[in-house]
Each structure stands twice: as structure tokens, then as C-alpha cells.
Design brief:
With 291 residues, the protein is mainly beta. The chain has one helix and 16 strands. The longest helix has 32 residues, at 3-34. It is globular and about 80 Å long.
């Protein structure tokens, strides 16, 4: 893979990694707090305003984009810092690194968002955000420099479903959607925390260049045809990911170790992709900013 293509693919990975981390770490926390999960009750008083910082670092044993493995077990890692409050405002900053890239540090993403949990629909959480990307490589002219995101989550007891859509913006426009379903099961409750498993499945819908053959009969030449190949972007299901993370929470700390299995699907019928899998670890800390 040449350097430009590697940078482009890793850029898309960076955008996807940040969006996924933001949705699954920050929004899950906000959802839990606003829906008053029992484990968060000691951290805040529902009748009062709250302000939090959330710090998170995570790493994966392989790098994938839409289920397609990039490199040979290429390690990647990221770190995020988020602020959020009871009025629905969230601010975020994240950085992404890849072991085999040059430079290893790929990009920084700044984010601002707003979310709410409507009183008329308990269990529903709505959110919108804007992301801005800053790239480490001075040689790379980015196709995308920002994204607008909309999302909704719904939880009923131990089960939840989340739908997220992003519009990438820059010299071109791109779209991708994710639909995530998961369940939470407590394995062990202890003073100050718990151990739980959160199995789930995520469907990734994105855009891919698909090549088509167009055949035209040549005028005045019976039986002669001219074939040309054109490429156009198609939107469709690109990957199904099965997940099995185990989560440990103790006071403000959370640790997650998980196994992820990808079943990628090509939108071009002439191509196919191998299944892929990796292990991931995430460590976070929730810091209340008021007593």
C-alpha cells in the first residue's frame, strides 16, 4: 500500500475510531447518568446541576476500517478528554496513533455537542455534535476536515439500541451510519463497583466506490460494441461486528477488555474481504467537578 493511500485509509480509521469512542464511551456514560443507573447514584444529585470530566485511553491489537484489516496486526491507540454537564453540553478532544504509520501520530479531533433526554420518552437519549479534524502529516491534503453527527439511543431495562449518522465534509462529502444493539448483564456487584458483560452487534453502513461496465453499440458497425468502465459511490451495509466486552467499574474508574469479530461485505460484487478480529482494552476515569 503506497504512503498516500495508507494516510487516506488511516484518516478514515481515525474519524471512525473517534466517532465510535465518543458514542460508546461518552454517550453511554451520559445515558447511564441521565437514566439514573444505580451505580451512578452516589456521584450526583438528580435535582442539581452536574459537571464532569471523562478521561479515556484505549488500544486495539489490529486496525480495521469497515471490517477490513489495515496492515498486519497493526496496533493502534487513542486518548480522549471530554467535558459534559447536566444542561446537555459536551466538549471533547481526542488523538489517534498507529504503530506502522509515519508519523505514528495521525490526527487530533475537537468536538462540541449537545444531548437531551426527553421527559415524555423515558429511556430515549438524543444527541447532535460537530467534529473538526487536524492532521499530523503536513504532506496530506485532507478530503474531509469536519463532520456533523446525529444520534439517538433507547434503552429498556438491560437492553439498548443506538443509531448514529455522520456527514463528512471537506473537498468532498461522505456519509456513514452505525446501528448498535447491546445488552448489559451484571456478573458481580461489590462495594463501590461491579463487573458486567456487554455483548452486542454493530452494523456499519458506508460509501464505497463501485465499478460498473457500460456497453454501447457502435453506430454503423453491426455487432460491434464499445465497453467502458465507470466508478460511482454506493451506500450500503459494509460490515457486521460482533462484540464481547467485559467491563469493570470501581468508583470513578472503568476498565473494559473485549473481543471484536468483523464480517465485512463489499458493495462491489467483484470483490470480497476476509473476516477479521481483534482485542481491545479501554481505561477511563470519571471526575466530578463539583462537590
Amino acid at each position: 500500500m503506497n504512503r498516500f493511500l495508507l494516510i487516506l485509509v488511516l484518516t478514515l480509521c481515525s474519524l471512525g475510531s473517534f466517532a465510535q469512542a465518543k458514542t460508546e464511551n461518552l454517550d453511554s456514560l451520559i445515558d447511564d447518568i441521565l437514566l439514573t443507573d444505580r451505580e451512578f447514584e452516589p456521584l450526583f444529585t438528580p435535582d442539581k446541576s452536574f459537571h464532569y470530566l471523562y478521561l479515556n485511553a484505549n488500544g486495539n491489537s489490529a486496525t480495521t476500517y469497515a471490517g477490513r484489516e489495515i496492515g498486519d496486526n497493526q496496533l493502534n491507540g487513542s486518548a480522549q478528554l471530554f467535558y459534559f454537564n447536566s444542561w446537555g453540553l459536551s466538549l471533547g478532544l481526542a488523538g489517534q496513533m498507529y504503530a506502522d504509520a509515519s508519523p505514528s501520530y495521525s490526527s487530533t479531533v475537537a468536538s462540541v455537542g449537545y444531548g437531551l433526554s426527553p421527559k415524555f420518552a423515558r429511556g430515549l437519549y438524543l444527541r447532535a455534535s460537530y467534529d473538526r479534524y487536524f492532521y499530523a502529516s503536513s504532506d496530506y491534503v485532507p478530503t474531509y476536515n469536519s463532520a456533523a453527527n446525529l444520534g439517538a439511543s433507547y434503552r429498556y431495562k438491560n437492553f439498548a439500541s443506538s443509531l448514529d449518522a455522520s456527514m463528512l465534509m471537506g473537498t468532498e462529502t461522505g456519509f456513514h451510519f452505525t446501528w448498535t444493539n447491546y445488552a448489559k448483564f451484571k456478573l458481580w456487584n461489590f462495594k463501590g463497583g461491579y463487573l458486567r458483560v456487554r455483548p452486542g452487534v454493530q452494523l456499519y453502513f458506508g460509501q464505497e466506490d463501485v465499478e460498473y461496465a457500460q456497453t454501447t453499440a457502435l453506430a454503423g458497425s453491426w455487432g460491434s460494441v464499445f465497453t467502458e468502465y465507470v466508478t460511482q459511490k454506493e451506500l450500503g451495509l459494509m460490515n457486521v461486528q460482533l462484540r464481547l466486552p467485559i467491563e469493570l467499574s470501581y468508583k470513578g474508574f472503568d476498565i473494559s477488555v473485549g473481543y471484536y469479530y468483523n464480517i465485512p461485505r463489499s458493495l462491489d460484487s467483484y470483490y470480497s474481504y476476509d473476516k477479521s478480529s481483534y482485542f481491545g482494552i479501554s481505561i477511563g476515569y470519571l471526575l466530578p467537578l463539583q462537590k
